[in-house]
Write a structure and sequence with these properties.
It is globular and about 65 Å long. The longest helix is centred in the N-terminal third of the chain and has 41 residues, at 39-79. By secondary structure, it is mainly alpha-helical. It is built from 8 helices and no strands.
Length: 267
């Protein structure tokens, strides 16, 4: 429990500081176009949703590329060698995937809650109760066999169920018009860049990191990771700069006449 608590506290810091504001911004953006039932309004919602999903996809790729190779270094730097020699690094690498699942759920549920009518919201609340039962059952099954890892995996199962429900709602909302799930996938260049970054960071950990000379070797390993991240973020900027611009414009304050400032596809 102590190891899981340590990892959970560290992961929840990322959720509170990064993903919670992101989810709130997504809800605000979706709410502004929710009342527009025209094809154009549907197209704009789909365009924004695709951009947000691609940004969440970037977070997933970033976690997958660097999380496993730097979890040991992060735990040892933050909490010392005692905790680094426990299962905490492995749990932190696994928790990175759970945090991404939370972010994906946050965006899809933000869309669902912003666009659902009263009857749909009642149904959504009933399903959320059911998903809580799924979470309890998954905890009971997985913790018994996998320990602390089971807690994280159970959370992933619960999030996967909620995301599946949200995606079903989204698919019905668009009826095949204005949005396709494939639009929310990261660019192929980012997939390639993330795969190369993951391989390079793994090689850096194997070649540079030494537990008996941790300070010096960790500095080299972190420097290598910083350079890899610089290249990764450069690729992300050029691949998804439109998505960043659309999100920024979507959450702008309203104009003096009470209308929301236009974004992206409104040109």
């Amino acid at each position: 429990q102590g190891v899981y608590g340590l990892v959970s506290n560290l992961g929840s810091l990322v959720v509170r500081t990064v993903f919670q504001p992101f989810e709130e911004a997504a809800f605000v953006a979706f709410s502004r176009t929710a009342a527009d039932g025209s094809d154009e309004g549907r197209r704009l919602r789909g365009q924004l949703l695709a951009s947000l999903l691609r940004l969440v996809g970037l977070a997933a790729l970033l976690a997958a590329a660097f999380g496993p190779s730097y979890s040991y270094t992060a735990v040892r730097l933050l909490y010392g060698v005692k905790w680094a020699e426990t299962e905490a690094p492995e749990l932190l690498a696994l928790y990175a995937g759970y945090v991404v699942a939370l972010a994906l759920n946050g965006v899809t549920e933000a869309f669902m809650h912003a666009t659902a009518n009263k009857a749909q919201l009642a149904s959504i609340n009933q399903w959320l109760v059911a998903f809580s039962a799924v979470s309890v059952a998954a905890n009971a099954l997985l913790v018994r066999s996998l320990g602390s890892s089971g807690l994280i995996l159970a959370g992933c199962v619960a999030m996967a169920a909620r995301v599946a429900y949200s995606v079903t709602f989204i698919t019905r909302h668009f009826h095949g018009r204005g949005f396709q799930l494939a639009q929310g996938l990261p660019a192929p260049l980012m997939l390639a860049a993330s795969a190369l970054a993951a391989a390079a960071s793994r090689a850096s950990e194997a070649a540079l990191l030494r537990k008996d000379n941790f300070s010096a070797s960790a500095a080299q390993h972190v420097l290598c990771g910083a350079l890899l991240m610089l290249v990764w973020f450069t690729c992300a900027f050029f691949c998804e700069r439109r998505s960043f611009r659309e999100l920024k414009q979507a959450v702008r304050p309203k104009t003096d006449d009470g209308q929301a400032l236009h974004w992206g596809g409104l040109g």
